[in-house]
Amino acid sequence: MSKRWQALGLLLLLGLGLSQVKAAEELRLEAEYPVEGMRGGNLSGLALCKGEFWTVSDRDDDQYYRLDSSDSVWKAQAHRISAGPPPSAGLPWNLRLFVRIAEYKRGGTVDFEGITCDDAGNRYLVSEGYAAVLLDPVQGSQSWLKLPWNLMAQANRHGLLTQFNSIYEGISVSPDGQQIWLAAERQRRGILTLFKQGDKWVCRNNCVMFAEGGTTPIPPALGKRSPLPVDFSDMIYYHGKLFTLERAAHQVCRRSAQSGIAERCWSFAQTLLAPVRHYRQNWGLAEALWIDERGAWIGLDTGDLAREDGDKRPYVLHYATPAAGWDAP
């Protein structure tokens, strides 16, 4: 078969795959919870570990938070980080320089953007500033994972992890703690996967399982006409699938855990962009995601922004499980 026909066949397969992704059904909002007690309020990740919600702030290098969700206002309780500085991940010099500059401008260099846990309760935090993963185990001391030496080079060959503030934005782990998925944020976005081998993490064949560029239309209520780059702002592994939080498109998508290809998406644009939750900005604020049988929890990184009612607290929004379930075709 000629290269021309091979290329046409690949385009046809991609087109068929895209056509099978149904139009995004709107999720139904169940409740919303303001969060108090975070130092800066930059809620950037969410995980339910052994019945307790945990979160990270992308401005705090020395602590993350357990969330008391027993009341209508969630209370954040600081949990210290004592693992020392992250190891080198092979980031190019210019990105390392931008991290240092950002420290003086906004504070913090580690830039925690995601948190997850395995069934044993071990917690994993991903650093965007250093492209590193911190393990906080149930037993033992905190430590930085030994990631593959060739991970950064493979990502760069796919156009991933090449721009400042567009590195790792989400992390998920298999229930047995033997496989990790990392979400590369944007320009280009992608999903990388690693497997545990002794005390190290390795790639099987290619570290990069999914990568793509392009743009996405913006919901009209956002008030920005031009499309934004497609992105991932968080990710969770649930029932054998990966669920990605896609901030610019204001949607959650179910994806294959083997290929990263989208199978179905659900929108949260109507409720998040309603006037009562309006923020004076032209980008999405959804930064944190948790999925289980009770629905979806989406956390907002509001920074210093205030809603129309003047509230500057970060929020977690609870959406009901879709009527046909998360496994619906």
Structural topology:
Layout: H1 3-19, E1 25-26, E2 29-36, E3 43-49, E4 52-57, E5 63-68, E6 74-80, H2 93-106, E7 112-117, E8 123-127, E9 132-136, E10 143-144, H3 151-157, E11 168-173, E12 179-184, E13 189-197, E14 200-202, E15 208-212, E16 215-216, E17 228-229, E18 234-238, E19 241-246, E20 251-256, E21 262-267, H4 269-272, E22 286-292, E23 295-300, E24 315-319
Parallel strand pairs: 1-21, 2-6
Antiparallel strand pairs: 2-24, 3-4, 4-5, 5-6, 7-8, 8-9, 9-10, 11-12, 12-13, 13-14, 13-15, 16-17, 18-19, 19-20, 20-21, 22-23, 23-24
InterPro entries: Phytase-like_dom
Signal peptide: 1-23
Pfam families: Phytase-like (PF13449)
Keywords summarizing the entry:
329 residues; mainly beta; Neuraminidase; eight-stranded mixed sheet; five-stranded mixed sheet; 4 helices; 13% helix; globular; disordered N terminus
Characterize the structure shown.
- This protein has 329 residues and is mostly beta strands.
- The protein has one domain (23-319): Neuraminidase, CATH 2.120.10.
- The chain has helices spanning 3-19, 93-106, 151-157, 269-272, and strands spanning 25-26, 29-36, 43-49, 52-57, 63-68, 74-80, 112-117, 123-127, 132-136, 143-144, 168-173, 179-184, 189-197, 200-202, 208-212, 215-216, 228-229, 234-238, 241-246, 251-256, 262-267, 286-292, 295-300, 315-319.
- The strands form five sheets. The chain has an eight-stranded mixed sheet, with no helix packed on it. Strands 1-21-20-19-18 form a five-stranded mixed sheet, with no helix packed on it.
- A hairpin with a 4-residue loop joins strand 19 (241-246) and strand 20.
- The chain is globular and about 50 Å long.
- Residues 1-20 have low confidence and may be disordered.
